[in-house]
User: What shape does this take?
Amino acid sequence: MATMEETTSTASSLLRRRGINPGDRVFRGVMIALSGLVILILVLLTYQLLHDSLPVWQAEGLSFIWSSTWDPPKDVYGALPFVYGTLVTSLIALILAAPVAIGAAVFLVEYAPPQFAGPIAFMVELLAAIPSVIFGLWGLYVMAPVMRSVVEPFLKNSAGKLPVVGGLFLGPSLGRDYLTAGTILAIMILPTVMAVSREIVRSVPDTQREGMLSLGATRWEVIQNAVLPYARTGIIGAIILGLGRALGETMAVTMTIGNSSRQISPSLFTPGYTLASGIANQFNEAGTGLYFGAIVGLALTLLVIAFLTNLVARILVKRTASGPVGATV
Amino acid sequence: MTLTKPVVSERVNIMPVDGHSMETRNLSAYYGSKLAIENVNLVIPAKRVTALIGPSGCGKSTLIRTFNRMHEVVRGARVTGEVLLDGDNIYAPDVDPVKVRRLVGMVFQKPNPFPMMSVYDNVVAGLKLEGVRDKRLLDETAERCLKQAALWDEVKDKLHASGAALSGGQQQRLCIARTLAVEPEVILMDEPASALDPISTLKIEDLMQELRERYTICIVTHNMQQAARVSDFTAFMLAGEDRVGRLVEYGPTKSIFTNPKDQRTEDYITGRFG
Amino acid sequence: MATIAAEGLLAKSNNRGNLRRRYFVDRLLGALVTLAAALGVALLAIIIAYIVIKGLPAWNLEFFIGHTEPVGVAQGGVGQAIVGSLLMLAVACVLGIPLGIGAALYLSEYGRGAFAEVTQFAIETIAGVPSIVAGAFIWAFLVKTILGSYAGLAGGVALGIIMIPIVARTAQEVLRLVPDSLREASLALGIPYWKTVIYIVLPTARAGLVTAVVLAAARAGGESAPLLLTSLGNDFYNFDLLKPMSALPLIIYKYALSPYEEWHQQAWGAALVLIVVIGIVSLVTRWSVNRSARRLRG
Assistant: This one.
């Protein structure tokens, strides 16, 4: 029975663990059960995906992931077009979103008057609350026409004429292609990368800024030479977190990427698939045979890629919290 | 702990003819609407070490940060009155604070080398800002300043190690070398040794003696013995009940410590408070 | 006097003469980062503007009450989608709330040891599972195997899985804010630990927990991908959880990809409904979070 003497924290944690009161034991049991169910869901998810995709791994082995023929009528499945599309659109998203997100984060921490920083950050973070399918709707009927009639012709006539790079801008611009999907993805991951970067930049100690300032640096020079290098690891983590989000996006991508598994072409103007959009578009036709296993295989591949990406991101972001390597400052 | 006056080192007091001096005239500093220090009138003589002493909260850090316009980096902080560097008011309307900070360097209480840069890059950081690219000049400067900061021998084989991989005392000397590299006219030190061990502290104090041959130095210290050991002039500050810091007494260190004119100075020096 | 001082200092410090270029760079980059922030805000404004402008005209009584009708026959509406969303969210809450808050409670009140580490890992990992993969799991597990058909129940379960980590993470934060002194005061009075949690800790954290649940529900309510594979969609009002069910995000998808202009407009209208709900939820939860944080700080 708890008495006055047993009010130290060690005592209360003892009480929690031993469960002197029978009610405590039941309560703890319920909490453990509920947590166990959460773990069970994860285990079940992994198991189900592995189990149901087994046929396609048995039929094709790991080469499922990098072979490029996806032919359901012939029961030949290669996930490369989907993996390729996922990587290309995510890369485009990162290239477009990262500078804007990091720039906005720097603005919020280093330039914005404090009373504005909060509201502005809130508004950009509201972008993150907009559902994917609505981005798809907007992308399909607002952005894609603009891409088709303005942006892509412009790119074709300017960058398209350059050697090497020009290959990215070949072909007819139909509006629903890797570039458009990548651009919509960029808008979608912008708030994530910005919010995390903002925290990272905020955590750079003021003593670093003062040190650079006292050498006679301009405000931007302080940012470039003292703040950003210190924050570099964490910002990379933020970018990879954004990548993690981009990899798994389905609806916005499905609606803007064109959905056709033609030849893998380097041009950004080609329509394509991603792992996510491939699943969304074909699940209904998948029946119970190898096709079904292949679709589940796509899901499993996506799961693994997303998991690894998020893991790396979390490690990088956590590492910044303890300061750069070897630092005692 | 006995209440004795600290020992003042014997030092000949000659007013130098060349060198850079600073002066404040009716200097008050605010954080927003809150007055922090009021009406300070003080001279920092050229090629001498001037110490600012006083109990914590008396405004000495605020004061020294007005000398290189670091005070105003805090949002809403401002200054009234004048701070002169060789007769030029650094707070004149069209004066660029960036230029002031190059001329008046600062070493901070907690050593703050840039951890993402090597020792070498830390030292030449200021020069690179000014666009110096000539490798020979950078190498020369790095070696010269590290020698002046009494750090060269300890780091000459690891110039490319991270600036943060050094011990606390070494880091602080690195910060001093970094400040020296941009050739300032005045060097400010805000409690430069308070975060260091006693041996490093003594090294820094020796350094101050050497540096004063070429630079004007102003230090803030809460350690009276240090002030007595190291400085030529001392300024004693105190915050009243209104928490506003004011200059109480100022003069040659010897006089301040052996023959203070103000009772409050005497009380502080003999350890009755603070 | 002023310019003399400035010139004097200038002469001394500008001995390398590149200050003008440095200031140009400083101003340029300052403008660029401001532009970046402005771009972020502008994007939000543009997207919301389009949704309001295109969606508002679709709002009428029939839109909210009617169900999908063939184009040309009747205007129809998205009523069945609204109902479906609510029903499936209810199912999601039945799964998400107990598991999410239970796991959060376990971690915050008993948080040490291997089991706790695994629980935390599970929460973080489920949070990182793409929603389509969660949908694929339920598709394979419930739809294909156990139930045999697309069903609102499956959709609800998929949404529940998405809710769990959101509820758990936010609840953990909220429970952490409840001061230990409160727990110890209660224990010192002889109240057993489980009663302390139920009658003292939870009520103190109540506002934050409600926020956590509402936020998670709003997030789950906007998800479309998992529902595609589990509840599929339905043109008619359906209250039977064992049959395919519609939802707002699903109907936006269906209508948007259709070739009919009338349905496009209803898609915008449904998008506006979602945005309004999410907007209200975001503002209310932000206000309530500020309020309870202030209260707990005393």
The interface with chain C takes residues 85-90, 92-96, 98-100, 102-103, 129-132, 185 of chain B (CB under 8 Å). The CA atoms of residues 51 and 84 of chain B lie 18 Å apart. Confidence is low (pLDDT under 50) at residues 1-14 of chain B.
